[in-house]
Design brief:
The protein is of the alpha/beta class and 475 residues long. The chain has one domain: Amidase signature (AS) enzymes. 36% of the residues lie in helices and 14% in strands. It is built from 15 helices and 15 strands. Helix 10 crosses helix 13. The protein is globular and about 60 Å long. The two termini are 31 Å apart.
Length: 475
């Protein structure tokens, strides 16, 4: 197979071909590295490529097959990891000038588990500094661009991962989500992002920010997500908030369908403005879930934007993480991040107590929806991808929004910890991806994956591929 053919195979397909000895792990890795070398200059999705190490591990994976050793479900499949997660022996900069030469000494649990399943880390993908915003650029590595149009952002903060997956530079990218950072780039890049229930995939190292953070993959197919979650889910003693094992197999139960399920669709969650073309695409997509046997009803929600509560946690924990760096390294921080930290430093204990009360009040509103419905659908974002170089583009004239408030559909479900996915709902008339968000009740991870799978069967998206450039837009 050619590198291009291998590049757009799913992880499940690659693993099956490798197990059947129809393609070797070395061949797959060489193809992946060839595509990264060819297309990364235009995208800047990868900030570190571990070519020599990856090829060495691929050779060992090939030898394991030859010698008949037992292999994991993702044996020999390339993995790329966001530059804010620990990978043993790897430079992990968090996109920060203050961490430019930092090397982490051990794997986080998610990387550790995917390696045990047979995956091979090929490199690290770009992130805004400390993952603070919904687009991807930083002072260390620069701007990451959208494969569908390199003048536009792929979203963030896991934008390097989404751009790499969309461009066929590796089928699974590991990222994080504290306010939408898996779902935002999945929407802007035309791929699948899933934030499992809070604690389903262990967080480590812990920090104050871990109260909102979910670790998870970005993929092109729902099957890849389910196989990855089979590996990733389950408690870890290092994370005191990690959930007990669910006891089920996600990949074995994907195709149960949605017959008899009750689905609510909200175009705005009661408070958000949406660009008309995005609204129309998401409305059409939601209505089509009836073709999978579900009943779909419009939901007239009277929710209030929970931004004030979410931002206390997000900004406050950013301040706690970075306060000690300010006297000597504050000038190195992204100016937008510095503003967020300054806001966080002014918060009082009573502000956190009030935010916690508001979080509970918001959950009271949300949980009532699930007394009547099994799932909630809404747009993932109010706008299609916009130009690079903007930290917090206000989507609409006349709105004065706070930092990150334009991501008004995603951060609410970090407050509640619910499972939520972004699936490609369709493409605009100019060929840009639009995401539909599927939100399940607490711990209903499997149902969200089943709904995503049903949508994938109704309106497949994996065959849609961007036309890629090989030249940097700045060249």
């Amino acid at each position: 197979m050619s590198p291009d053919e291998l590049g757009f195979l799913s992880a499940v397909e690659l693993a099956a071909l490798i197990r059947a000895r129809r393609v070797s792990p070395v061949e797959v890795m060489r193809a992946t590295l060839a595509r990264i070398e060819r297309f990364n200059p235009a995208l800047n999705a990868f900030v570190t490529v571990q070519a020599e190490e990856a090829l060495c591990l691929a050779a060992k994976a090939e030898e394991a097959l030859r010698s008949g050793q037992p292999v994991g479900p993702l044996h020999g499949v390339p993995l790329h990891v966001k530059d804010n997660l620990f990978v043993a022996g790897s430079r992990t900069t968090f996109g920060s000038k203050s961490m430019e030469t930092n090397v982490t000494s051990e794997d986080c649990p998610a990387v550790e588990r995917l390696r045990k399943a047979g995956m091979i880390v090929v490199g690290r993908t770009n992130s805004p500094e400390y993952g603070w915003k919904g687009v991807t650029d930083n002072r260390v590595f620069g701007i990451t661009r959208n494969p569908w149009n390199t003048k536009l952002t792929p979203g963030g903060s896991s934008g390097g991962a989404s751009a790499a997956v969309a461009a066929g530079l590796g089928p699974i990218g590991l990222g994080t989500d504290g306010g939408g950072s898996l779902r935002i780039p999945a929407s802007f890049s035309g791929v699948f992002g899933f934030k499992a229930s809070f604690g389903r995939i262990p967080n480590w190292p812990g920090s104050g920010g871990a109260m909102l953070r979910h670790i998870g993959p970005i993929t092109r197919t729902v099957s890849d997500m389910a196989v990855a979650l089979d590996v990733l889910a389950g408690p870890d003693p290092r994370d005191l908030l990690s959930l007990p094992a669910s006891g089920g197999c996600y990949s074995a139960n994907l195709d149960c369908g949605l017959r008899g399920k009750r689905i609510a669709f909200s175009p705005n969650l009661g408070y958000a403005r949406v660009e008309p073309e995005v609204a129309a695409i998401c409305q059409r997509a939601a209505e089509r879930f009836a073709d999978a046997g579900a009943s779909v009803e419009p939901a007239q929600l009277d929710w209030r934007d929970p931004y004030d509560a979410w931002s206390v946690f997000f900004f406050g924990t950013a301040a706690a993480s970075l306060e000690k760096k300010l006297p000597t390294q504050g000038e190195l921080l992204d100016p937008g991040l510095r503003r967020v930290v300054d806001i966080g430093l002014k918060l009082r204990g009573v502000d956190f107590a009030n935010a916690l009360a508001a979080r509970h009040d918001f959950w009271e509103q949300v949980r009532r929806v699930y007394e009547r419905f099994d799932l909630l659908l809404c747009p993932t974002l109010p706008v299609p991808p916009f130009a690079v170089g903007q930290d917090d583009a206000d989507p609409f004239d006349g709105e004065k929004l706070g930092p990150l408030q334009w991501t008004r559909f995603t951060y609410p479900f970090n407050l509640t910890g619910q499972p939520a996915a972004s699936v490609p709902a369709g493409w605009t008339k100019t060929g840009l991806p639009v995401g539909l968000q599927i939100i399940g009740n607490r711990y209903a991870d499997l149902l969200v994956l089943q709904a995503s799978r049903a949508w994938e069967q109704l309106q497949p998206w994996n065959h849609k591929r961007p036309t890629l450039s090989e030249k940097s837009p700045d060249a």
